[in-house]
Amino acid sequence: CYNVCLAGHGYVHDWNEEQRFNIFLKTLAKIESHNWKYHTQQSTYYLGLNKFSAMTHEEFLRYTRQGSYAKKRLGAKTSSFECQSGSDQSWSSRLLPDHVDWSKKGYTTQVKDQGTCGSCWTFSATGAMEGAHFKAHGKLESFSEQQLLDCCSGEGCDGCGGGEPAIAYASVFKKGGIETEQQYPYEASQASRFYLQLTLESRNSITLKKIQHFRDFSFLFLLY
């Protein structure tokens, strides 16, 4: 397992093999400890080994380019944009179920990999829009994170350096829509080779008609 985790993933070889193996063993111990909780029904998910298993936490942050945008936005309020506000009042009579698994209801695509780009904000945005599109049309489409990386600009859109899903929604709304993943595939970088083609063709497959902001930590609105 150790050799598989290291193979082809660009690990820095400035440490000796023993140091790297010890990092892997610590990760493995954490995984086994957590999975024991899963098998004894103390947790709802399990963990496994992957290409990050022999990395330190600092290496992982550098690999995914996390940190710079998060530190810049730490303590700041969420960027605002024109939207409609919701209220809990109209939902007060609805009982919440014990659990909801949107993936089993067909609302979510397969797991995606952001690679070495701090683009988690684009995946968060497309995931929400994919679910809303499925609810409205009964058809699950995978939307383009790469288009958001290439086309979203200004405060709250820092490409592979981080960003805010709320600003991504506003960008899609203002630009008239978003492409599917198949038409505009992900490359984990900004200004991809698909940007010029999209600009020339000026097409958007999926349109966003409305943005509605819900109160933070409102469990009722998660069912909306």
UniProtKB/TrEMBL annotation:
Cathepsin propeptide inhibitor domain residues: 2-60
All residue ranges annotated as the Peptidase C1A papain C-terminal domain in the record: 96-221
InterPro entries for this protein: Papain-like_cys_pep_sf, Pept_cys_AS, Peptidase_C1A, Peptidase_C1A_C, Prot_inhib_I29
Gene3D superfamilies (alphabetical): Cysteine proteinases
UniProt keyword Protease, yes or no: yes
UniProt-recorded Gene Ontology molecular function terms: cysteine-type peptidase activity
BP terms from Gene Ontology: proteolysis
Pfam families (UniProt xref): Inhibitor_I29, Peptidase_C1
Keywords on record: Disulfide bond, Hydrolase, Protease, Thiol protease, Zymogen
Residues spanning the membrane: none
Coiled coil (UniProt feature): none
Signal peptide: none
Similarity remark: Belongs to the peptidase C1 family.
PANTHER family xref list: CYSTEINE PROTEASE FAMILY C1-RELATED
Protein name (Swiss-Prot/TrEMBL): Cathepsin propeptide inhibitor domain-containing protein
